[in-house]
Amino acid sequence: MLTYRVGPFSVRLRTPLHDLIQLVRWCYGTNVDAEPRDLALFNVAVEKGSLSRRLFAPQAVFRTDSETPFQPFPRDHAFALLEWGLNWCIATRAHQYLMLHSAALERDGHALILPAIPGSGKSTLAAALALSGWRLLSDEFGLLDWKTGLLQPVPRAIPLKNDSIEIIRRFSPQADLGPVFPRTRKGDVAHLRPDKQALSRDMETVRPAWIVFPRYRAGSSVRLTPLPRHLAFVRLSQNAFNYRLIGVAGFAAVEHVVDTCSCWSAEYGGLDSILSALDRLPSPAP
Amino acid sequence: MSLLLQALRRPGTVRDLSLSAWDRLLREVHAHRLGGRLSCLLERHGVEADCPALVGHDLDAQRCFARYKQSQVRLELRKLNKALAPVGVPMLLLKGAAYALADLEVARGRDFADVDIMVPRTQLETAETALERGGWLSETRDRYDQRYYRRWMHELPPLHHRTRLLEVDVHHALLPLTGRVRPDPELLWAASRPLPDSPYRVLCPEDMLLHSAAQLFQDGEIAGDLSGLLDLHQLMQELGDEAGFWDRLLPRAEQLELGRPLYYALRYCRRLLDTPVPNEVMRAAEAFAPGQLNGRLMDLLVPRVLEPRYPTRRPAHISAWLLYLRSHWLRMPPGLLALHLLRKGLRRGSH
Q1: Could you tell me if A130 and A12 lie in one domain?
Q2: Is the peptide bond prior to A282 cis by the omega test (within 30 degrees of 0)?
């Protein structure tokens, strides 16, 4: 059994799979067993599948206390399963936040929100930014505390898919990637682990300053266009997992973040050009 | 005793919990989906600040979720009314929908599995046609299931609107037509009250409690339904304050043939949740008690399946199974029951 912290959440994991424990320790390093083990929010287990499957095509099963949300995965993919399982735990439970389906990063005390739309290349972009001096707040969940308007970090492994794995390897020799899990339901997946800074500062909340809706188009040169507030509002509210669920508070939170951030849509064809464009985003007036 | 039960009995006691006790409590709360309700109870007793931050945030989040479900229930009711009012079918709200719209304490933070309404039996067909036209679909197409509901049950097969997820149960009686007791719906309608500033009606306070008791102890499988027991507990606390409530309760139970489930409700609420039932009411309710053997068996089984055990202790499977058989026994005469269980068993086997 081990306990680890991912931002405001704590996980207690029971599993007989030693490889999995090693990967969790590799990925979450200093945040493993950092908390008192007495109290955890998510009690999860990754178990070996049914007896008949242990000999032939062994499986891994993700369970919470009362639910088994997914079909079993091949045993070798246990870490990917665990990561997806925790996404599910957060998405179904953390309604104290407006959960944006966004990556979020910090520079000089200001947060950049990168909402995901299919094909936006959000994870690749977040990985590249995290490898270029930005602090990773989150790859999957932009947790906006709607009581304070601040973003809560939840630094997790960034799952890179298919071609992105090679792109990030080439982008930075420092990229610390885990094993490649071939042919998962989302294709080949390898995880980039969050760096020490992201992990150790995971309770430092940040005020959002920029919202950029990225879109990757092969061969295109980078272009940032200011996005009118009403469009940013609609797009961001549609991007949140639980916008309707938190009702009026969700409306107010989106309105506030859109009003206080500079909002852009970005088209890009290469990592280097979009990165320098994002670096040049004007800092908000103090 | 389970920590959740302890917290529901005396919310103030959470002040003294250790971190590992909070951990256990949180898991029990989550497995029983009672986070929203516990959050409201702790707030009411002024101890919500005593939760560790992690627990406080989680309970808050569950409360948000409950509030959302409640707004969905209100929306569904407005839509149902829009479909049923033009054809002159009145709506009597049951269970959670009634508690929420009547703004009762018991509705605070409560989760909703479905929306339950009752319509007069004579207008059942009109209602069904109107709902079909309004876009509600039957959830089951299976012919046996359809017949099961229509011939033997007290409600239509579950419906849901094709653009929404919430299940709607349209009742025409409180308990199955094949059951051992069948309270007369006419009596319920006659005593029902209009809800101020709304097109809906709700049961009178005594009937509201009796229905809740019947739901758990006559028609229900009991096991794991701590939420149902908490409904009873909170209804007794709140409705019990109304003048004359306790005096009217027992005669009304007799009239509706619901004395036995009421007896169980009073007994187990008192035993498990320490509900303030007046002593003379408890004594008078003894008239509805089961035989000695039956009573002892229930005393043995009911606390075992209602007290939260899962996920921190092994669930009481055998007790739950016995009470499951009991619930079916009360629903149908033995011959029909045998056929129904055989049919269900075969179907499970073929899947």
Answers
A1: no
A2: no
How high is the pLDDT of residue B350? 59
> Are A262 and A198 in a shared domain?
yes
What range does the domain containing A17 cover?
A: 1-93
Residues A106 and A85 in one domain: no
Is residue A93 less than 8 Å (CB to CB) from chain B?
yes
For residue A87, pLDDT over 60 is answered with yes
Closest CA to A121 of A261, A278, A3: A278
Residue A202 and residue A89 in one domain: no
CA distance B275 to B171: 29
> Taking all residues of chain A, what is their mean pLDDT, rounded to a whole number?
92
The answer to whether the beta carbons of residues A46 and A78 sit under 8 Å apart is yes
Mean pLDDT by 10 residues, chain B (351 residues): 92 93 94 94 94 94 94 96 97 96 96 94 93 90 77 84 93 83 91 95 97 90 89 96 94 95 96 95 95 91 85 78 83 77 74 53
Contact A39 B64 (CB under 8 A): no
Residues in A closer than 8 angstroms to B68, CB to CB, are: 244-247
Pairing label, strands B136-138, B159-161 = antiparallel
Residue ending a domain, among A93, A122, A153, is A93
Chain CA centroid to CA B147, Å = 24
Residue B65 is predicted with a pLDDT of 94
Q: All domains of chain B, ordered by start, with CATH?
A: 3-350 (3.30.460.40)
Give the CA count within 13 Å in the CB-facing half-sphere of A173: 0
Q: Is A39 an 8 Å CB contact of chain B?
A: yes
**pLDDT reported for residue B42:** 96
One domain, residues A81 and A117 = no
Chain A residue with the nearest C-alpha to that of B56: A96
Number of domains making up chain A? 2
Chain B CB contacts of A39 below 8 Å: 19-20, 22-23, 26, 52, 54-55
Residue of B20, B24, B58 to mutate when probing chain A, most A C-beta within 10 A: B58
- Which of B205, B219, B107, B131 lies closest to B174 in space, CA to CA? B219
Residues A32 and A138 in one domain: no
Distance from CA of B170 to the nearest CA of A (A): 26
Cβ distance of A246 and B68 shorter than 8 Å:
yes
Q: Are residues A143 and A165 in the same domain?
A: yes
